[in-house]
Amino acid sequence: QVQLVESGGGLVQAGGSLRLSCAASGRTFSSGTMGWFRQAPGKEREFVAGFPWNGGIIYYTDSVKGRFTISRDNAKNTVYLQMNSLKPEDTAVYYCAVSEHYGFRRSPDDYNYWGQGTQVTVSS
Fold first, then answer.
1. What are the tens digits of pLDDT across the range 20-44?
2. Cα separation of 89 and 106, whole Å?
């Protein structure tokens, strides 16, 4: 059974930074996609950033480009989301997720495993 555990959320002022972590356990992945999503109150869950497990381009949604950076530590089976220059509109619950489908995926419907989420609140 795959488990994804996020951590690192919190309350930060606008312009500040946070680093989210997603620790994966239960199995290793050689294909599919690792993604970060977020969901603000009253809104749909949206793709934030992600990459194919077997390497390749990292994708970011336009609103976070230049501010968020995704990275991975294979030895720790952990993926990180460094968030800089945070804005109040970044406030949401952030989730990491894994898709086992072939090809890069952005839709939450294509993801098979989800973490429990971590709250990020950015005050103005």
1. 999 998 877 777 899 999 999 999 9
2. 20
